[in-house]
Amino acid sequence: MKKNLSPWIHQLRKDRQSVALHADIETDVAVVGAGIAGVSSAFFALKYTDKNVVMVDRFKLAYGATGHNAGMVLSDFERGFASLVEEFGLELAREGQKEIDDAWGLIDEMYTDAHLSISFSRFLGYDGFSKSDQVVSCLKNNFYRRKAGLYTEKVFIAENADFLHQIPDEYEDLYTTVSMDEIFSLLETKEKSFIAAASIQIGSINSALFCEEVLLYLLKKYPQRFSFYEHTPIRKLVLKENEAILDADICTITASKVILCT
Questions:
Q1: Among 143, 156, 170, 202, which has the minimal tally of Cβ within 10 Å of its Cβ?
Q2: pTM of the predicted model as reported, rounded to 2 decimal places
Q3: Contact call for residues 39 and 215 (beta carbons, < 8 A)
Q4: CA distance linking residue 24 with residue 16, whole number of Å
Q5: Three-state secondary structure call for residue 14
């Protein structure tokens, strides 16, 4: 198997001490998994409650998917907003989408509180579309987004697209027709198969380094309420009426709440 050498993990501190759990422990909140989801969960649990938090990972901080990604920051569901509305209704879909949209603010909050100086690029990008059904699907998502009071993406369609007359009238104010040269400019390509583009907010960050810096901040900020253990795999989780027992090989963790981020 080809070895995966992550440039993100390569930038982590080599001198940071790694501690494994060697004795039974009790806590209010146990966070399992020390990737970006786990570190974020620990951050907000510590900031907005007075609970004790223990975070564990079977290997090392951010060595999973968090340390082996392209570094792109994107707040979106893998399925269109219109399909969420059709399955769950407008109100539930709106609440879910708003939580995703507001994730940018959560990253900013962590970044500011922890006084991070690592690079966090944030900019407006564009999705390219080469088929008419992709464009109509995007417009349908925007139609329901606007109906739900959410922001809508800016959609640009080539003025020579042969399907313009097929777009439903209810979508007519949700897009702008532009020249093909403008489409090429937005997408930074000369690929003639593209017929439309939609704006999307994206960013780029070393997610592994982000986790490490936030972790160090939490250890310093909450030394009495937060602890972190690596090389501590959870083999079994037993749920009881008022507590959970986590089997960590030679020892156990007893917690009132468990957050699984694996």
A1: 170
A2: 0.88
A3: yes
A4: 24
A5: coil
The C-alpha atoms of residue 39 and residue 66 are separated, in whole angstroms, by 11
Could you read off the pLDDT of 138-164 as tens digits, one per residue?
Answer: 999 999 999 999 999 999 999 999 999
Both structure tokens of 22: 């060697």
* Tokens of residue 6, six digits: 């992550």
Retrieve residue 61's tokens. Answer: 């901080």
Q: Which residue do the tokens 């990604």 mark?
A: 69
Pick from 175, 230, 240: nearest CA to 54:
230
Residue 142 CB partners (closer than 8 Å, separation 6+): 152, 153, 155, 171, 174
Cα separation of 244 and 205, whole Å? 35
**Contact (Cβ atoms closer than 8 angstroms) between residue 218 and residue 46:** yes
> Residue 76: which residues within 8 A CB-CB, separation 6 or more?
100, 200
Instruction: For tokens 């960013």, name the residue.
Output: 203
CA-to-CA dists, residue 251 to 38, 39, 49, 232, 234, angstroms: 21, 23, 27, 10, 10
Contact 21, 249 (CB under 8 A): no
Give the whole-angstrom CA distance, residue 215 versus residue 61. 9
Length in residues, the chain: 262
Tokens of 58: 């079977």
CA distance 248 to 70: 31
How far is C-alpha 74 from the chain's CA centre? 7
More confident: 226 or 250: 226
